[in-house]
Amino acid sequence: MPYPAQWPNHPVWLNIFAMLALLIAPDAPAALDSQGVFERHENAVFQIRVIHKETGKKRSIGSGFIFNRSNRLATNYHVVSDFIDKPETYYLSYLSADGVEGRLRLLAVDAVHDLALVESDVALGAPLSIGEPPAKGAALFAMGNPLDLGLTIAAGTNGGVLSQTDDSRILFSGSLNPGMSGGPTFDDAGIVVGINVATTRNDISFIVPTRYLERLLATQPQPASFLDEVARQIRDYQISYLDRIKAVDWPSNKMRDMQIPAAISPTIRCWDASPKSRPEHLYRRYTVSCKNENDIFLTQQLDVGKILYEFIWVESDKLGPLRFYRLYQALNASQFGSRATEDDVKQFRCTTRFVNVNGMDFKTTLCARSYKRYSNLSDILFTAAMVGKKDTGFIFNLDLSGSDFTAATHLIARFLKEIRWQH
Amino acid sequence: MAALILEISGRHGPQYHRVDKAIVRVGRALDNDVILTDPAISPYHFAIRRGQDGTYSLQSLADENGIRCNSKRITESLPLSQLPMAFEAGRTRARILDPSHPVAPTRMIGCHNGKLCLFGNRGWALALFVLLFVLSAFDNYLSTPQLLTWESFGEDQLIIILTALSLSLGLTIVNRVTSQRWDYAGSLSFVGLILIAAILLDQLNLFMDYYFTSQTPGLLINLVWHLLIMPMALAWFLIRLNHGSTGTSILSIIILLTPAAYIQTNETANYYGLFDTFDNKAHYSDALSPWDIRRQRTISIDSFVDSVTNTIAPKQMDTDNSDL
Questions:
Q1: Does A406 sit within 8 Å of B313, measured CB to CB?
Q2: Residue B34 DSSP class
Q3: DSSP β-bridge partners for residue B87
Q4: Could you count the other beta carbons within 10 Å of the beta carbon of residue B265?
């Protein structure tokens, strides 16, 4: 057994190791496991509830944790959004791990990053420490109340800040479930490094970096109308987001004879969405579809901030013009995909013009509808179909949900300037 | 006054009886001058009497059910001063007519001349149906951007033909109800013409949409088609061509055409936002044409941005909660 036998022959190594251990030990507490994190912080995590005033029953639940002050809780905007939408119908309350209930009042929201601060009249405990997320791959522990089953903790790892979410989300490779939203995510030192926010299941979950929570403290005092405040934040973010997209050079792709902008921002991903080609088809059709991943929760039914665009190329040397245009006509039928109802938005209003796009004529339509309760937010539908070719068609569709009309039109103009027929 | 004519309506059309005796007695008893089978009729129900001065009167003989004229029960003798006079005996409808009462024009069997032969000649009906088949097949061919197979082409054609035959059968039944006649050829011709017009109308609408860069002309054409042309054409077919009863024909037209007219009116109203109904759809001119014939000239990208800003940009704070 040569290996253990060697140690006594190297006393110097042992001495250095022991010294390092002595030096580091006072400042580096032993890494906590999930049980350690849970036991240390279970009294600082609460269930946040939206209660109907008439029935006294929960409409929705989430989680929250003591932050900044002993009577202040941090949670998600989407946990309290029903209350913001209808404050005359609901009120907010908390439930502690040991079963104590109490009223809460809304203090501040950050709809863009899905955060909210609420306050109680009584002290709830010591505020948790917050910090930056650890290195990618490090252990994380998410606490919350999944499915109203009681406080629990889920272990996972840090997947890093996601550029495709405009740096607003950290990937958490662990299991978040409904009800855990707004709960804290700890590192192995028990420091809060993020706020649970969303999941796509299969252990792919998302948390909000704590730096946005610190910024939220600066937004006080409380606004006169949280609805208007939410609309203002989303609109300001949309303007700044679209401006940042417009400010940079766009990568260009070739799609048959057309030069097109592809993924114009790190937040946007493009995919080939061409339909399967079949031998009986007398045409060729290709589609590139792009969308952003940083959409924003507005209400239980509506997400906004979505940018979705597609390029459709269709050509045929076997169909005559009449037959080809029947096909082309059928493809030119863009509609806005949305779950908005008449309570949310007004009717679309459209304008159609023929526009010269780098030497080619396009039949272009822009439709817009404004939100009824969120000031100056609009859904935008834009579609442009190339005309004048007997055997070739090209369509560009762009949808923006809950955007700023002027910023959207400038983005559309930029798109049209970037689309170029390669003669 | 000369002899009168008694018209008795029945399931198989009206029957006519000459009233040229001093007393003509009507009822279910077999010794009447006119014998009726309606069980609501008394054995001796009513009589038509000629007076000394040659004038006629209607007299009720029935103990049960009696005679009603203009919804009033006749208990005594009613002089027949104004003809025609309609009345109800039991459940039987009857009229007393003057022999000089005009009769409907003779309906031609086997038409050889004139424009209306389209609706009376089986040859024309078949020709129109063949034309519909050819036109719809061509339309179907244009709309099928792949090799033609039974699945992609034949089934659609079969559906069109079956639809046309079903509509013809429906119209034949309506025609039978309104005019008491079976007439397949006329109904086939009429349905054939309407469907041919509908196919051409679709293409006209697309052309107008592209030419004017607006859905308004197409919507107006559709509205006129559904609210004016179709009802008038059907009224002409049932009342003028087939001499159907006006009331029944109009009722049939209302029942047949109201759904389509309602849908079209609703679509037009939604397009212009006339009713306060919500529609998640964006309505815009989406027609494309290989010939690019249009009124609108091409503008620059910047002009387009100006144009949409001036026309559809939401007003600042244009929201329902702006006063909160």
A1: yes
A2: E
A3: B94
A4: 16
Asked if the C-beta of A23 comes within 8 angstroms of chain B's C-beta atoms, the answer is: no
Give the tens place of pLDDT for each residue, B196-225. Answer: 999 999 999 999 999 999 999 999 999 999
Whether residues B278 and A341 touch (CB distance < 8 A) is answered with: yes
Judge if pTM exceeds 0.95.
Answer: no
Complete DSSP assignment for A97-128: TTS-EEEEEEEEEETTTTEEEEE-SS--SPPP
pLDDT band at A25 (very low <50, low <70, confident <90, very high): very low
Does A48 fall in a domain? yes
Sheet holding A252-255, edge to edge: A252-255, A258-261, A420-421
pLDDT for B321 equals 35
* pLDDT of A18 strictly over 70: no
- What are the tokens at A280? 């009986």
Residue ranges with strand state E in B45-168: 46-50, 56-60, 67-69, 72-74, 78-79, 85-89, 92-97
CA distance A87 to B292: 55
Tens digit of pLDDT for each residue in A232-255? 999 999 999 999 999 999 999 999
Which residues of chain B have a CB within 8 Å of the CB of A411?
Answer: none
B324, A225: Cβ pair inside 8 Å?
A: yes
Same domain, A218 and A236: no
> Contact A354/A364 with Cβ under 8 angstroms?
yes
Our CA-based measurement puts residue B153 at a distance from the nearest CA of chain A, in whole angstroms, of: 13
A215 and A299 both lie in a single domain: no
How many beta-carbon pairs under 8 angstroms link A with B?
163
- The CATH code of the domain that includes A264 is 3.40.1000
Q: Quick one: how many helices (H) and strands (E) in chain B?
A: 7, 12
Domain carrying residue A280: 232-421
Mean of the per-residue pLDDT values of chain A: 89
Distances (CA, A) of B299 to A105, A153, A373: 54, 60, 35
Q: Quick one: pLDDT at residue B319? A: 40
On whether residue A10 sits in a domain, the answer given is no
Q: In B143-262, at which residue ranges do the beta strands (DSSP E only) sit?
A: none
Asked whether residue A6 is assigned to any structural domain, the reply reads no
Q: Would you say A296 and A303 are in contact if contact means Cβ atoms under 8 Å apart?
A: yes
Last residue of a domain, one of A190, A222, A254: A222
Q: pLDDT grade, residue A358 (50/70/90)?
A: very high
Q: Give DSSP secondary structure letters for B140-157.
A: HHHT--B---IIIIIHHH
- Of A390 and B83, the one with more pLDDT: A390
* 3-state SS, residue A20: helix
Give the residue from B58, B29, B27, B30 showing the smallest Cα distance to B41: B27
Q: CB–CB of B120/B175 below 8 Å?
A: no
What are the CA-CA distances from residue A250 to residues A308, A384, A418 (Å)?
16, 19, 8
Query: Given the structure tokens 């790190």, which residue do they identify?
Result: A266
Q: What CATH number is associated with residue A40?
A: 2.40.10.120
Yes or no: say if A185 and A193 are a contact pair by the CB < 8 Å rule.
yes
Instruction: Give A 262-321 residues with CB within 8 A of chain B.
Output: 278, 280-283, 316, 319, 321
The whole-angstrom separation of Cα A357 and Cα A413 is 10
State yes or no: pLDDT of B318 exceeds 70.
Answer: no
Residues B145, A282: C-beta atoms closer than 8 Å: yes
| Among A222, A252, A268, residue at a domain's last position | A222
